Amino acid sequence: MNWSTTGFIAQGGEEEEDNQLISLELPDATKKEIDFTDSSFFTTPNRHLPTPAEVRAISKDAYKSYKVTPVVFENVNLIVKFGTDVTIVEAVNLWMIKKAFQNEVPVPELFGWRVDDEGYVFMYMELIKGLTLHECRDSLNTMQKRAITDQLSQIMGNLRRLKQDPSDPFIGSINRQHLLDRTFEFKPKTGPIPSVKEFIDWFALLPQILASYRYDDPDRCFLPDTGEIKFTHADLHKRNIIVSSFDPVQMVIVDWEQSGWYPDYWEYCKACRTCYKGDEWHTDFVGEFLEPQEDLYHVFMDYCFVMGSFF
Fold it and tell me: Residue by residue, what is the 3-state secondary structure of 63-123?
């Protein structure tokens, strides 16, 4: 898979010899307006995406710039996510995953994006109908819970088949930009970073940088300097998993705004971080669809606490 540099994706079996190199040129993230005319939205003749002005006119809180409620156009199966905190990188993430995996990693289809004169990004995508896992969790029976963990395990296994060019590794956003994980929100921007060790060195040093003094770090030795770099959702909260069908169970994963290339254990740490200690999501779900990394998770959380990162 090619994103200006060369990457790889396993298309086929799980064995290394079944992997197939494919090429995929990412959309130009510098453009302020793109329509994906090959998407399902444009199969209807003469259909146009609503303008930013039309979206704002319908929005109930368009006066906000951050965490604006998305606007739904149900008659055309469209939802528009917009605001100054929305990024084109998230749109590119969605586009790439849909192109690379089709329904093997179910995500909303991207129809296009706009950037207006005020710097608001408007991301036009498929409306997914259903309940979030957070909304329906108390009504799930044992069989449905098992079906959900099984399907999430398969989805995550598919996503983690995505590989970088081993000669050009990096940790950062898909288009080789700075890290967008909210763990680092309000922290100095950084990235891309060329290795796991350099990333972990930076991560472990952040509390000292923010405190403006240095000390011997007793926990740094517990964070591995090596390991695979995997494409990571980075926010597998129950609210970001929509159950679109219960019989059979079918799900769609949304909100890829924090996604990027991270150490292979990052997904587990971030998924556990979305809930309180002892929550069913942590104890009964996450460890079933991701490889448990409990010791690393506790070290990760210690660093987050010290640096005042609560997202």
Answer: CCCCCCCCEEEHHHCEEEEEECCCCHHHHHHHHHHHHHHCCCCCCCCEEEEEECCCCCEEE
Note the pLDDT of residue 23.
62
**CATH, domain range 20-126:** 3.30.200
| pLDDT (mean) for 135-139 | 92
**Predicted local distance difference test score (pLDDT) of residue 310:** 64
CATH 3.90.1200 domain position(s) in the chain? 131-307
Q: Dump pLDDT digits (tens) for 71-96.
A: 999 999 999 999 999 999 999 999 99
Residue range(s) occupied by CATH 3.30.200 in the chain: 20-126
Cα distance between residue 36 and residue 184, in whole Å: 31
- Judge contact between 172 and 189, C-beta under 8 A: no
Please name the CATH architecture into which domain 131-307 falls. Answer: Alpha-Beta Complex (3.90)
